[in-house]
Each structure stands twice: as structure tokens, then as C-alpha cells.
Amino acid sequence: RVGEMVKQALGMIFLRDEAKLPNLDTKEITVTEVRMSQDLKIAKAYVLPLGGKNAEEIINVLKEYSFLRRKILSKKVDMKFLPKLLFRKDESFEYAEKIENLIKQTNK
To answer: Is pLDDT larger for residue 90 or for residue 26?
Structure first.
């Protein structure tokens, strides 16, 4: 439940472009999943830019400026400990497409 709450808050932060970042339009970033650690002190946010373009560059910028998002997140989420944000590229869509292609090949 906490991961879902953080996911929604991060999504709104990106959508409203509340954390201004240099050379990055956060409206094009989708938060697909947030996984919390057992002690709720670390949140791994899986994100994907629109179209998957420049994903590595965008992830690096998000990592570099994660303190800005964390500061804004502290105002939106009421938790005992505010989690440290770790951003990762979501590769689940690529994996699903790979599996789908393998299934199509075996059916031929």
C-alpha cells in the first residue's frame, strides 16, 4: 500500500512538473511501479519515459536530482520515515514484448 501511495504521489509530481529539472520534461515520464524495502526506508521507483527514448539519460538526471523529488514528496506523503528514492528503468514492457515474440515464433 505504501508503494502505491508513493507511486501516485511521484506520478503527480512528474505530471505537474513540480520539480523543475534542467533539460527534462517530466510530464513525459511514467512511474510504472514503486517497490518499498521491508523497513520502508528505500523506495525503488521504476520509470519509463514516453516512447522509451533516452531512457538512460533521463534515469541519470532523475538520480542526480532525486533530492528535489524527495523534498516535494515529503509534503505530499505523510510517513514516519521519508524513503530514499532510487530510480530504475522499467524493462517489463521490453521483457513482455520479447516473450510475445518468442511465443509467436514457436507457433509458426
So the answer is: 90
For 4-52, write each residue's pLDDT tens digit: 888 888 888 777 777 777 677 777 778 888 888 888 888 888 888 876 6
Helix (H, G, I), strand (E, B) or coil at 80: coil
State the CB neighbour count (10 A cutoff) for residue 14. 22
CA 12/CA 59 separation, integer angstroms: 18
Q: First and final CA of the chain: distance in angstroms?
A: 42
Quick check: 68 and 77 in contact, CB under 8 A?
no
Q: Is 28 exposed, middle or buried (0-12, 13-18, 19+ CB in 10 A)?
A: middle
* Cα 40 to Cα 45: distance, rounded to the nearest angstrom: 13
HSE (CB half, 13 Å, CA atoms) of 3?
15
H/E element holding 97? helix 92-107
